[in-house]
Amino acid sequence: MKSKIINAENLDPQPLLLINKEGVRKYWGKSESDVCEILKDLQEWIKKQNFPEMPTNHMIEFFLTNCKYKVEATKDVLSTYYKIRKQVPEIYEDSNPRLSEIEKSWTMGCYCPLPQLTDDLCRISIVKLDSNTSNFVASSYFANIMNIYELRIYEDLCLSEIIICDYSALSWGHVFKMDIFTVRKMAHIMNSLKNRVKQLHIVDSPSCINIIIALAKKLLNKKLADRIVVHKSYDSLYEHVPKDLLPCDYGGKGRPLEEIIDMWKEKVKQYQDRFDTLEAWSKSD
Question: Membrane-spanning residues where (predicted)?
Answer without folding.
Answer: none
